[in-house]
Design goal:
Structural class: mainly beta
Strand order of the largest sheet: 1-2-3-4-5-6-7
Number of helices: 0
Largest sheet: 7 strands, antiparallel
Order of helices and strands: EEEEEEE
CATH architecture: Beta Barrel
CATH class: Mainly Beta
Radius of gyration: 16 Å
Number of domains: 1
Helix content: under 10%
CATH topology: Porin
Strand content: over 45%
Length: about 130
Amino acid sequence: MGAFSDFKLSDNWSLQLELNLRSEKRERVFKNGFRESVDELYLTVPVLLKYHVNNKFRVYAGTQVLSASLENDISGLKKWNGILGAEYYITEKLFFETRFRHGFEKQTSNGNFRDNRISLGIGYKF
């Protein structure tokens, strides 16, 4: 769930700022082998540069300037994610979106896991 604002830079380029709340279920693995399932609520603030291929199709890239857990510690503030995605507009206001988020920093729980996600979404512009 979130909100966004899209600022037109030229006929083919725009800058999109977002404020999102997302819920994630993840498993933490401790050095002694103990596993714990954790439900976390995150506040994220992506900044995306979008290229408008035509009236219906857009591609974008950007980063999350903030990704913080609201339920656990604030270690999420240190996360740095890159984002690639595409949007397809069904109507002028209704669109489908797919997004890939790549975490550039290793998670501390097991040392070899990066936080990579693929998401699909539907959006509506007011």
